[in-house]
Request: fold
Amino acid sequence: MEKHHYVFAITLFLLLSALGSPCFHCIQHGTALQSTYLSANSLSNENHPPETPLQPQGPLKGDAGKEYLYWTSATDPDDDSLFYLFDWGDAQQGSWLGPFESGANISVTHMWHQRGTYDIKVKVRDTYNAESNWSASLPVILSGPYLTLGSITGGIGLTIELKNIGENDAENVEVNLTTTNGFIIKTIPKHLQIPIIPAGDSIQEEIRLWGIGFGIFTDLPKVTITLQAPYAKTRGKQVEVRLLGPFVKKVGESWSTDESYKGYTLYSPMMSKETFLINNSGAIVHSWTSSYKPALSVYLLETGNILRTAFPGHSPRFWGGGIGGVVEMFHWNGTRTWSFQYSTSQECLHHDVKMLPNGNILMIAWEYRTKDEAIFKGRNPNNTPQGGLWPDHLIEVQPTNDSGGIIVWEWHVWDHLIQDFDPTKENYGVVQDHPELVDINYGGRILSDWTHINSVDYNQDTDQILLSVLLFDEIWIIDHSTTTEEAAGHTGGRSGKGGDLLYRWGNPLTYRSGTDADRKLFNQHDAGWIPPGRPGSGNILIFNNGLDRPGEDYSSIEEIVPPMDANGYYSYTPGTAYGPTESIWNFTAEKPTEFYAINLGGAQRLPNGNTLICDGPHGRFFEVTKEKEVVWEFTNQVPDPLDSHVFKIHRYAPEYPGVQFP
Reply:
């Protein structure tokens, strides 16, 4: 309102007050429609924003394609009229509705067009455009069809599997195919119409292609398959093929959305000597070639070098999963710049490594202990293999020259054992009273590869190391601030506990606490701290394979927050299971059994909050949002679609220093 309007209003107010006119009561209590009445704040020359609206109310569940009614209300301290803006959680924010009197109950209908979980919220503004905060959100779960593509195989043409993994039948399904690259003469059909795909069902369709395309003179032919049906959520794919006449060999498949984190994904197929960097379209943009297959991890360093584990093809004694023996580094241009071998009849590297900020490298290795040594440590002879045990240990290597290195720090599981089998041994004790130690008789398996650590991570802020211990179904944290001598004992380091376990989680049965119901991990892989600057920073992310999980077979990604006390130490109540009791976030497939990696696998939190997942035994990579929506997918086909296993993957931003395209 202009200044002279306020002067007029105040003058009128004083005049009517002096006269005792009943019109003053009308101005004070009238409806606050701007076009008709003067609001109370025009008399005070001060406007107050509306109160935050009440949380919207209405149905919490429903079906896509149907209208539902929701209601709310809000008040204004100046009794101004209010306009309402609803955010329906589906990118349909709508327009301002109103005006409505302050305190009035309003109702609005809305229809969602796809299945999913939607958060409804509302805010208001008054006639002077002062806005409230958003209300608390109301989550609404809508059922509906969900069409995806399952297996796609080559041969004479392509065979595609259409799946409806939603709760409702999909009707009037349309399948469209487009082709690019190569010399494709004919595609039959280019358009399919399917009357219905029942919920939970799948069908197969045959596609015929004729043409030539080997990726020599042009890029490999690509077939893009899109799906459509009323009120259905859909997910298509792009397939890369080699084509000779009617014969088709699938090379790879992928798809992505705008919600995917843009960057480059690094991986080493387990049965190949190649390491690949691909973009979000699945195209190989860079590669490196080694003389050895991986064993099993690879990383792109900020220098542009890759750091990879390798298996030279033989070992004097060891033969377990993830066997290696060599760590090597390659320049961006493909030249090997450094290698380190740690493979004898007494020890052998395996699985994973971690580059430290000082340039040293943490490595996982087995060490050989005879059957007699194991029995001397209290191992039950009936559960001890004739070939002895291979307990794990860590070494920190300082690289030297172009080949070799100096071991500057060590930690051994063998130095931190307890048992309650043989009271004549020094390490005899009550296992439950010592969760900081490792029970040498846990599991009762007659396996030499007894602990099977399969990943290592490092936290620079705490100077701690995180380990995934597969055959114990748990993760361990130890202190790295110790000397090697302190790491072999029970005192020293920042924690004052030497090399004993500071924290463990996933399976309290390993230290005789809790019950089967308290077990959280099942043959897990790739435990790692979420890096600084990423959503969930400092939390731990774990690929939980699910082998031997009670009930159905399925995998999950778990994000946990280890409980800490006021002094920064891990909280623990003796005789109970280490917390937390539940993950802060987890991912499973919509139909859990659709995602099951019996072994291998990894997960990485991306800067935008999405999580990159490697379904290792199937060579399938995919990215999910916090809301568990899949927004990117790629399937490795190297060296062969039937042998495309990958241990784990990593994505790097285009601006990452190690990405060094000319």
Notes: The CA atoms of residues 82 and 576 lie 55 Å apart. The two ends are 61 Å apart (CA to CA). Helices lie at 3-19, 23-29, 40-44, 371-376, 484-487.
